[in-house]
Amino acid sequence: MATADPGRPGFALPLLLLAGFRTLIDGLHAELAAQGHPELRPLHGFVLQAVGVEGTTATELGQRLGVSKQAAGKTVDRLVALGYLERADDPRDARRRLVRMTARGRDGLTRSAVVFDTLRDRWATTLGPERVAAIEDDLRTVAAADLFRLDVPGWFGT
Amino acid sequence: MATADPGRPGFALPLLLLAGFRTLIDGLHAELAAQGHPELRPLHGFVLQAVGVEGTTATELGQRLGVSKQAAGKTVDRLVALGYLERADDPRDARRRLVRMTARGRDGLTRSAVVFDTLRDRWATTLGPERVAAIEDDLRTVAAADLFRLDVPGWFGT
DNA sequence: CCACGTTCGACAACCACGTTTACTATCTGG
DNA sequence: CCAGATAGTAAACGTGGTTGTCGAACGTGG
């Protein structure tokens, strides 16, 4: 670990949290690639999740993800091009363009859920189930203490 | 938390890890901005860390961070423009361009370490010191079990 | 001692993801 | 019925990444 400063305890915690997150995401996408979804990027999982089974609109998606509606729209464009999402007109409001998952999108999301469960099981095997649960509880506690908000995504830069 | 699927336990863990990482980084940069370093981005901390007090070169920096030498070079350009790094010729090898921290760079890195320590203390106040230590231990255990490697940075996209 | 292969840095083209600003089309309430 | 709010799109830009190419400088073998 070339970049961590062993002398300052505070440096380790963010590094470890990032590393933990990363390994789950990397594991997910390695497995997804093997299961027929090589084009799915880390970000896309969040987006599919946020679109949900009922569908949504670009503006609402942006709010859910914490990014501008323009950014959300561009990401939807890419996912449409990849075949994970599709757009449709809203019969009740000609301004809105509904965004829905395709069958491929649903397949990717379902597989993501299964793989995440599997990866969590693997952690539970290594650490013991109660330790994994304790990590989750602790992080939720910190979240509840308003040390951070849990609505999450929407950084990845700038 | 609009984006998490409460029905699938596996989804929560990566989200919580990311949220934990994010809050530390956000807290760091909020504080750094207040202490005279508003231009420092999350990535920059890793880069300064990787440059180290002895300095390095763009190619070596790229290796440490897990990115191409070109990407490392561009990031160095930005940090030079911001006054955190400086370049110098290597008297022993005219091909190489040494990258070193300026006084400002050292100041930013030092303050980062202090702020990270403070944030960790705040977690310890909320959770109890032994719980924070337990999280770190567990994540290190998972790392050691080769469920992930700890050399970390070098994703943030693509 | 010199030619050849390797390495370093730079440059260019490109992509993903985000921003702000600006514009059009549509809906809605007084 | 029109003023104002809202949905989507477009353009310009910033940041962080990628490949590919290239010239200059290094080091080594013949």
Can you describe this structure?
Two copies of one chain form a homodimer. In chain A, strand 2 (85-89) and strand 3 (97-101) form a beta hairpin. The longest helix of chain A is centred in the N-terminal third of the chain and has 26 residues, at 9-34. Chain A has a three-stranded antiparallel β-sheet. Chain A is mainly α and 158 residues long. Chain A contains six helices and three strands. In chain A, 62% of the residues lie in helices and 8% in strands. The structure holds a DNA duplex (30 and 30 nucleotides).
Number of strands of chain A: 3
Task: Give the strand line-up of the largest sheet of chain A.
Answer: 1-3-2
Structural class of chain A: mainly alpha
Please outline the major beta sheet of chain A.
3 strands, antiparallel
Helix proportion of chain A: 55-70%
Oligomerization state: homodimer
Average pLDDT score of chain A: 88
Large-scale geometry of chain A: globular
Instruction: Give the C-alpha Rg of chain A.
Output: 18 Å
Q: N-to-C terminal Cα separation of chain A, in Å?
A: 26 Å
**Helical segment count of chain A:** 6
| Spans of at least 5 consecutive residues with low confidence of chain A | 1-6, 149-158
Largest interface: A-B, 67 and 68 residues
Properties at a glance:
disordered C terminus; 158 residues; globular; three-stranded antiparallel beta sheet; mainly alpha; homodimer; DNA-binding
